[in-house]
Predict the 3D structure of the following.
Amino acid sequence: MSAGFVRLPSVERYWLRGGRVPVAVLAEPVPGLTLDADGLALVDIEVTGAQIGRIERAEMTRDDRPEVRLEGGQVWPCFVDLHTHLDKGHIWQRAPNPDGTFRAAQRAVADDRAARWRDEDVARRMEFGLRCSYAHGTRAVRTHLDSQGPQAAISWPVMRAMRKAWMGRVEMQATVLVPIDAFAGPDGERLADLVAESGGTLGGVAYMSDAVDASLDRVFALAVERGLDLDFHVDESGDVGARALPRIARAVLRHRFTGRILCGHCCSLAVQPPEIVEETLDLVKQAGIAVVSLPMCNLYLQGREPGRTPRWRGVTLLHEMKARGIPVAVASDNCRDPYHGYGDHDMLEVFREATRIAHLDRPHGDWPRAVTATPADVMGLARVGRLGAGLPADLVLFRGRHWSELLARPQSDRVVVRDGRALDATLPDHRELDDLMTEPAS
Ligand SMILES: [Zn+2]
């Protein structure tokens, strides 16, 4: 990042004074806070070594410890990016999407994967994505891994090595990505075993078909046998008939599945009639499914027809879900690949765009949890994505004070604090991947 807007002292104990926090990300209530209409309150945060010592109402106590004056700039816990595709990322220059549609994205990725996704290629692009995440202030990332045919044996070992190398910087989780009918037969068992050995999450793309319930039964059985959590790509279209989400919810209830389960996208819910929506949301709530929306990728792909201006935003019913108590998160999804031509693994950008696309404002309320505490809970990371005494001092300090300031600019002068110290990480240059973008030697 460019030079931070404040400098932290290089001492064990110091105060971050006069920061504005979204109270929704506090692990526990702080006495005496004065909330503004936007759910923000001024606090002082004592950093003690790698941890948060205390959080108090601003200007409660004075001592002679070094202090950093934030002058009202917002303080967030580090972000959690719940749904990414680090294996696909950053191939745009060699595999662009010719017309920007979902179908063309599938084709472009399939061709590129078959031709180019060997160890080094996947590892270098994955690492590039993680470096972006880290520098922008993300603490944990879940990535999907294309696992068709020979790709599983390449990408999963790369992920395991990467997860080990990044331990303590970015917590990594991985989910298998194949059409769910790929789990039929002994190949399905082998793939589920690979996922289990790799500490991954089972799942896949739940396409609508006559076989969807049977395919889901198979995935659930494989997950239960191995004690795995589940994560699906669901109904990523504006097709009113795409209704895999209630089928997954019914499978949860049928199998009495007790693991964590996440469904991504769920776009088509937004174009379905109210009575269908009601029934589906009841089932999702009952099944304990969490939902992650991918607003930037949805906006890019959904409603795209060459030569025609898009008429819908492509995102699922975030407000209606949250109102029912369904845990909802937003995340990056694809970065600079045929599914989304842009993106930088910056969860502030995701939050800013989600706020605009899905109206996560008026009020902003507890929406900051959608990129912090809620995805951390889905990933089973109880000490991540929230602010509280005794929790790691993993923070992002912003110059922006109010929402209209924070979300107006990219906050490129943010200061990422990890274990109480200012992070010295810069964004990698896109040029670093130039050699991967040329034609492969035949
Ligand atoms: Zn995805």
